[in-house]
Amino acid sequence: MIELRGNPEVFFSDSPSIALGLDQVEQLKEQALKNPRRRCRLCIHQDETDPIHQMVIVHMNDTYVRPHKHRTRTESFHMIEGKCSLVLFDEEGGIRDIVHLGLPGSGQSYFFKTTERLFHTTLIHTDIAVFLETTEGPFLRDDTLFPPWAPNGEDDTEVSKYLEDLHAIVSQRDPYPA
Length: 178
Hints:
Elements: E1 4-6, E2 10-13, H1 22-34, E3 39-43, E4 52-60, E5 69-70, E6 75-81, E7 84-89, E8 95-101, E9 111-114, E10 119-124, E11 128-136, E12 144-145, H2 156-173
Parallel strand pairs: 2-3
Antiparallel strand pairs: 1-2, 3-4, 4-11, 5-12, 6-9, 6-11, 7-8, 7-10
C-alpha cells in the first residue's frame, strides 16, 4: 500500500521513491469508483512546482474529460490498462485526429506524445483505463484553456449527451478496432 495525501480524486505520494504494482493500481481503481467524476490520479511528482509531472490516471468508461489544451506544455500518455482514444480537435471543435491507445500487443499504439497545442479529450473504451501521463511543470491553472463548444462539466445531462455524440462520431469516423 502507498500512503496517499490529497483529495479523493488527486493524490500525492509522501515518498521520494515509489514502486507501483497491481495492488496500488487496484487501490486507485477502487478510489475512482467512489468518486462522483469517476476518476482518480496519483501524482508521482512531489508537488505542483516540480519541473516534470508524472501521473498515474484512472478513468472509468463514463468519465468526462473536458476538452482542453495547454498554452505551453507538452503531454505524453502511456497505457497501463484498458483502451482509450485521444480525440484531438481544431479550434472550432472539429475532430482533427483520433489516436487509439491500448496495451502492447493490442495492435494499437500504447504511447503517444504531442508538442502541438491542440484541444483534446479522452474517450474510454473499456470499463476502466489506466495510463501514465507526463507533462512539464509547474502546474499553472491559467495554462489550461477550455473551448466554448464543449460542456463545462456542471450539467450531467449535457455531458452525457456530449459524450454519447462524440462516441458516435468517433466510432463512425475511425472506430476503435475490436
